[in-house]
Write a structure and sequence with these properties.
Elements: H1 9-18, E1 26-29, H2 33-47, E2 53-56, H3 59-67, E3 83-86, E4 90-91, E5 97-98, H4 105-113, E6 118-123, E7 135-139, H5 144-154, E8 157-160, E9 177-182, H6 189-197, E10 202-205, E11 207-208, E12 215-220, E13 225-229
Parallel strand pairs: 1-2, 1-3, 3-6, 6-12
Antiparallel strand pairs: 4-5, 5-11, 7-9, 7-10, 8-9, 12-13
Helix pairs in contact: 1-2
The structure holds ribulose-5-phosphate (5RP).
Ribulose-5-phosphate binds next to helix 2 and helix 4.
Length: 231
């Protein structure tokens, strides 16, 4: 598929990713503004005869997919996903990620884990030399104070994410609270990921270091895309 060439890096990345989707695929649909462009392009391809089934990673993505006529199944209804297309907030040179600006990192990790292939779509502002947080952390409400204290003991500061046009904390699609853990530069993302995910009460953090070996990153530029990782 060609790029629309309209000078929008996110749209170029999202559109290029849609070109990886083949007839009959089960496609994991990530969350965010870049994947939304992928869905726009998939909707067009569906009108032209493409048959796919999407597995959404958030309520927002499910709503958009339904508007676009993309048939959906839940993760429980499929035994494998051929390809997942998702966004990211930070991408380091080893293709380790921070995700979760949209508070969807737990479902995004489940869907990525069930996928044969993961494509990350982003503009070049997401590329960094070193991951540096903040790291989104989803926490069960019961353990909120406990997890905040445990994270603060590791160093850094913790902010409970507040809603926009809603008083009080953001509540995730899973009914949990989202913390933004300000870590500063992260020397060892794998270790940090495992330490955070092992705190009782944490459902999942936004560091995703384990997918770098199977990942393609499509970096949108104003008039083209760069491909990092798996071709
Ligand atoms: C949501 C995410 C998004 O994929 C990430 O924030 C990228 O979003 P955008 O494409 O809007 O920049 O992790 O939880």
């Amino acid at each position: 598929m060609t790029n629309p060439g309209n000078g929008n890096p996110k749209e170029n990345a999202g559109c290029r990713a849609a070109g990886y989707v083949r007839d009959g695929m089960i496609v994991g649909l990530g969350t965010g503004s870049t994947v939304a462009y992928t869905m726009d392009h998939l909707a067009q391809q569906i009108k032209e005869g493409l048959r796919i089934t999407g597995v959404p990673t958030s309520l927002q993505t499910a709503m958009k997919a339904r508007e676009h006529g993309i048939p959906l199944l839940s993760l429980d209804d499929v035994t494998r996903i051929d390809l997942t297309i998702d966004g990211a907030d930070q991408i380091d040179p080893s293709l380790r990620l921070i995700k979760g600006r949209g508070a969807a990192q737990v479902r995004e990790r489940c869907v990525a884990d069930a996928s044969e292939r993961l494509i990350i779509v982003a503009d070049s502002s997401k590329l960094c030399n070193q991951l540096s947080g903040p790291v989104p952390v989803e926490v069960i409400p019961f353990a909120l104070g406990h997890v905040v204290r445990r994270l603060e003991k590791l160093g850094g500061t913790v902010v409970v994410r507040e809603g926009v046009k809603k008083d009080g904390p953001v509540v995730s699609d899973n009914g949990n609270i989202i913390l933004d853990y300000h870590t500063g530069p992260i020397e060892n993302p794998e270790t940090m990921e495992s330490i955070i995910n092992n705190i009782p009460g944490v459902v999942g953090c936004g560091i995703m270091a384990e997918f770098s070996g199977v990942m393609t990153v499509i970096v949108g530029e104003p008039n083209d895309c760069r491909i990092l990782g798996r071709p």
